Amino acid sequence: MITTVVFDLDDTLYDEIEYCRSGFGAVARFLANLAETPAAERILDCLWKQFAAGNRTKTFNTAFEELAIAYDNKLLGSAVKTYRNHVPKITLPDDSRDVLCRLSGKYTLALLTDGFLPAQQLKVQTLGIEKYFKCIIYTEQFGREFWKPSPAGFEKLMATLNVKPETIVYVADNEKKDFIAPNKLGFSTIQLIRPARIHTESCDEANASPQYVIHKISQLPELLEKL
């Protein structure tokens, strides 16, 4: 019997692409205040063009070069810090809020998320979702080596809530890392495929595939009933 529903955060409860654009906007405003740099709108357009083209690792470097902004590691570090520490302009979709409200009266809800700690905490605060969860696990608090697919966060969650794996469902989006550990531990796993999701890669690794797939979070309560 399922008693506990654990959610991932990014691209599960909201569209992560909203956060990315919000972060690039913060970086654009930061850079525009420096001497001899373009206007914030132009910087944002350039950053977004790089990101949308699939440049996810050298976004700032490439944009700086295109904009003729002289940069060094210090400026890059400041841009990254601005991105991770900004108060995001993101919203919780109505269907996510409705599902959290519906499930909170029937199941114990928890959140388990990877990512840089200040950024993840600011996302949770901005979305206003703390009240729905009995337990929130930020894997960054254990160290980056314990991000998914490490089982550490899931084991901590079970110990904190004193629940057995066969009573838990994990709902997440990223096949490359999200389901490996909970599948091995004996959780039920559900992949939510949001239309605007960022991570679309599949994975050939054993235990990487989710046990169930849904395309709308509104489909979750009915699936949980069947489980």
What is the fold's blueprint, element by element?
Elements: E1 4-7, H1 16-32, H2 40-52, H3 59-67, H4 73-85, H5 94-104, E2 108-113, H6 117-127, E3 135-138, H7 152-161, E4 168-172, H8 180-185, E5 188-192, E6 212-214, H9 220-226
Parallel strand pairs: 1-2, 1-4, 2-3, 4-5, 5-6
Helix pairs in contact: 1-2, 1-4, 2-3
Plain-language structure description:
With 227 residues, the chain is of the alpha/beta class. The chain has two domains: 4-15 and 91-226, HAD superfamily/HAD-like (Rossmann fold), CATH 3.40.50; 17-85, DNA polymerase, domain 1, CATH 1.10.150. Helix content is 43%, strand content 12%. The protein has a six-stranded parallel sheet with strand order 3-2-1-4-5-6, sandwiched between helices. Helix 6 (117-127) links the parallel strand 2 (108-113) and strand 3 (135-138). The longest helix has 17 residues, at 16-32. It is elongated.
Describe the structure using short key phrases.
about 230 residues, alpha/beta, Rossmann fold, DNA polymerase, domain 1, 2 domains, about 45% helix, elongated
On the 0 to 100 scale, the average pLDDT is 95
The ordered string of helix (H) and strand (E) elements is EHHHHHEHEHEHEEH
Using only C-alpha atoms, the radius of gyration works out to 19 Å
Number of strands: 6
- Biggest sheet, in brief? 6 strands, parallel
Shape: elongated
